[in-house]
Write the structure tokens for this entry.
Amino acid sequence: MIADQWERAVVLRLGRLVGVRGPGLFVIVPFVDQVAVWLDQRIQTTEINAEQALSKDTVPVNIDAVVFWQIHDPERVALEIIDYRQAITRVAQTSLREMVGSSLLSTLLSERKQGDQLLREEIGRKTADWGVAVLSVEIRDIGVPPALQDAMSRQAQAERERLARVLLGQAEQEVAQKFVEAAETYARSPAALQLRAMNIIYETTKERGATILIPTAMVDAMNPATVLGIVAAAS
């Protein structure tokens, strides 16, 4: 008989295990030997889901995941378990539900990579005795009820609005502090205040193409109240 490169044949002789044959050409004794099972050692996938599983905070969620596994010990797979594919599916579903039941919804949504790792370790620990190695587990989708999605959306919007108000308050505080520092500077230096007043007049009139002539004596006597009056008149 011939086994492909990825195949292994479990051979029994009068009901007893003779060995695992393949890949390539191998010989069996007619009426004495038989190939009990052909096993594929390529990487295979199994889709699992946990419908309406309750999280630790009693939120019903639907989770879909994919398990990537491979047979590493054909002899144990043939002798230790009847239907290894169905067993992998059952173990994976049970482990997924256990993880959902012991985790908060926020943890499931924000730490998928950690959830994948926990599932891989848990499923791999249970299937190792059967000769099956779990390579990886990937959570594809986490579904929550529509009503809860709306509540989570409103919560996220409220949180963003709260952060925006905090940032606005911090900005106002910084601006007020800068105004205090500027007032102290102008109080120590009257010349700086006069220059600032002239600059305010210039900034107010430059876009309209107006020209204002101010006597030097007026500039010397300029104070903040006079500046505001001139600006209002220019406007």
The radius of gyration is 39 Å. The longest strand covers residues 60-71.
